[in-house]
Amino acid sequence: MATQQINIPDIGDFDSVEVIEVLVAEGDEVAVDDSLLTLESDKATMEIPAPYAGKITKVTVSVGDKVAEGDAVFEIEVSEAAASPEKAEQKAEEKPAPAKAPEAPKEAPKPAAESAPAPTPSPTAQALTKPVNAQSMGAASHASPSVRAFARKLGVDINTVSGTGPKGRIQQSDIEAMIKSVMQGGAGAGQAQGGMGIPSVPEIDFSQFGETETEELGRIKKISGKFLQTSWLNVPHVTQFDECDITEMDAFRKSMKAKAEKEGVKLTPLVFVMKAVVKALQDFPSFNSSLSPDGQSLIKKHYYNIGVAVDTPNGLVVPVLRDVDKKGIYELSRELMEISGKARDGKLSPKDMSGGTFTISSLGGIGGTQFTPIVNAPEVAIMGLSKAKMQPVWNGSEFEPRLVMPFSVSYDHRVVDGAEGVRFTTTVGQYLTDLRQLIL
Ligand code: CAO
């Protein structure tokens, strides 16, 4: 074993070039041609390859240092095989370019123009993709200097990009695909994906498998899709499932149905749920809040506007019923009928859909046992109602037939913790089981 010093080789006309990446750390094993350093001048970026195989024993250079030809940057304990003149010769033969004499590496690294497209990985470039040490290589993001420069120019953190090249090497097209997916996700998605590098879904020509037909999404689906994706990506969701006994509530609702019809309204469980939810929001104010844009504080709202997801032929819309805490069951039923009718006729104004503090998505009229609704950000939580069914419930001495409604609440885990989440659903359930509690 012999220790050799690694110096900056001939780097052309540059005499003071900044180190922008140190790709190895002390203790790393490297092979000949593995990339050790990336340098960047105002004209080009270049990688300094290892002239020997062995173990790095000393790193004398850091990011931000300026280096010139001849500067000592590493010490390496050269492995037997590479140190042997026979093997070294053999290697030089195997890798005609760039050939490096162990004693005095003179081969100038190839500068890559910043705007140059990503080169097709050559055998040498592929060798660079071998992870020397994943930790010291900044999560082992393998990319050529020109691709790194391209990423930097566009403000993309290379470590967040998934490479599709050989051995996971990042190519210019990977960076372009990432930027494209962020742009297609809209402004919100840009915020959501900041630094997360969510890879795009591959484009597939489905016609190769059978006949297809392309139908453009409706306007509402296009708009709501962006909001849903933004929320899905921004909000760490937790969904709490629960169920409650609504036997008494439904008996009451049915007993009031005829009277309600005379008032010109149709009573469904949803309006009772709205009242129970508002009471629970008053008990748990964080569910009626929004996170400040910097994520550092909670904006608690002292008004209770409930958004109701309405299924329309054109897609999902969420009109808002205002001041639900101040309104009675008939008034709410009337408003719900009016606003859902307006939604189905495509006549909602932006004002009808703004100012919500909490949303309810009721699929109970259709079916289902449970589902995970997506928070209507910047609200903090959303409730999903599923279909109530008669079930045998043990009352302590016997099974009784009871009407049980499953429901779920998805919430932003940055705002609500799990214990609070289940306390909220338990409280809503208790109010729905015994509506008298709503007037206490
Ligand atoms: N369990 C059992 N039955 C229920 C129920 C529940 N949880 N919720 C409603 N029902 C019953 C109603 O009582 C009514 O029956 P009757 O006519 O016998 O009284 C029937 O189901 C139909 O109710 P409805 O759906 O017309 O009325 P609603 O007040 O419950 O809901 C509205 C109104 C606008 C929310 C609803 O029509 C709607 O659009 N729901 C779909 C919402 C949606 O798509 N959400 C998904 C969002 S995520 O993609």
TrEMBL record:
Keywords: Acyltransferase, Lipoyl, Pyruvate, Repeat, Transferase. Its EC number is 2.3.1.12. Residues 110-127 have a biased composition (Low complexity). It comes from the Bacteria. The keyword Transferase applies. Residues 142-179 form the Peripheral subunit-binding (PSBD) domain. It is an enzyme of class 2 (transferase). It catalyses: N(6)-[(R)-dihydrolipoyl]-L-lysyl-[protein] + acetyl-CoA = N(6)-[(R)-S(8)-acetyldihydrolipoyl]-L-lysyl-[protein] + CoA. The keyword Transferase applies. Residues 81-127 are annotated as: Disordered. Residues 86-109 have a biased composition (Basic and acidic residues). GO terms for molecular function: dihydrolipoyllysine-residue acetyltransferase activity; lipoic acid binding. This is Acetyltransferase component of pyruvate dehydrogenase complex. It comes from Hydrogenovibrio crunogenus. The lineage of its organism: Bacteria, Pseudomonadati, Pseudomonadota, Gammaproteobacteria, Thiotrichales.
